[in-house]
Structure to design on (85 residues):
């Protein structure tokens, strides 16, 4: 019975590792945020509070600013573009 248990465990472990290898990774596609200053508040942007809009990543100082951005992204994107011009 121990051989069956060990064999089943090995099979399940191998299957799990195989399935994990099929999971797509997004780290390779990640690009740094375009901005270091929050386009909503003008404060320093937090690299952990980001969103992707039209294929570009934007950073914000907090979740409240992120929510405001999502309501009217073009308004804040225009602000970023004028700061980097």
């Amino acid at each position: 019975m121990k051989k069956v248990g060990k064999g089943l465990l090995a099979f399940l472990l191998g299957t799990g590792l195989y399935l994990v290898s099929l999971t797509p990774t997004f780290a390779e596609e990640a690009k740094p945020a375009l901005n270091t200053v929050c386009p909503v508040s003008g404060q320093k942007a937090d690299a952990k509070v980001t969103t992707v809009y039209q294929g570009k990543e934007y950073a914000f100082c907090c979740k409240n600013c992120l929510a405001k951005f999502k309501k009217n992204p073009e308004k804040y994107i225009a602000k970023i573009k004028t700061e980097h011009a």
User: Anything to note?
Assistant: The two ends are 72 Å apart (CA to CA).
